[in-house]
Amino acid sequence: MTDQSGAGGTNGVTSPTSTTPPRPFPCHLCPRIFSRKHDLQRHIRVHTGSKPYICLNCQKAFARTDALCRHYKVEEICRKAVVKLEADQGVRRLQQSQVQQTLQMEVREIQKAQKLRQQQQQESKVFT
User: What are the pLDDT digits (tens) for 77-111?
Assistant: First the structure.
């Protein structure tokens, strides 16, 4: 018997006598089988190419929420814009367009500050 759930195990192979949870959710597009409906729904995005999770700053799309969270951790400008917006106004209370407009303004401010900092560093190198 082969474990095709993608979770743990040794190379996806289990012995016939091991106790595996029932997996009543098969993918109709490939041989994978899942024990939870949520896992199947997430897996289906692999086949459809759906990317419903979008960075409100740069509009980059992701298939999974963990990838969007990782993006926010890696992309400093996006992270700062989202964190500041959450602290200042609370994302849940704003409409999507308001969030995007506010984030764009925050990103512009951050980019201007970074550009100014770079110019100041270059100018200080010229004089030294």
Answer: 766 666 665 555 554 554 555 666 766 777 777 77
Is-contact 88 94, C-beta < 8 A? Answer: no
Q: How many folded domains does the chain comprise? A: 2
Q: Which residue has the tokens 């029932």?
A: 22
Please give the pLDDT value at position 28.
92
Domain that holds residue 88: 63-127
- 78 falls within a domain: yes
Question: Do both 87 and 115 map to the same domain?
Answer: yes
Both 3 and 45 in one domain: the answer is: yes
**Residue 16 dihedral angles phi and psi, to the nearest 5°:** -60, -25
Whole-structure pTM value: 0.45
Structure tokens at 123: 């100018």
* Any domain includes 58: no
Q: Do 69 and 117 fall into the same domain?
A: yes
Whether residue 20 contacts residue 31, with contact meaning beta carbons closer than 8 Å, is answered with no
**76-88 helix and 65-74 helix, angle to the nearest 10 degrees:** 100
Q: Is the pLDDT of residue 31 over 90?
A: yes
What pLDDT is attached to residue 83?
61
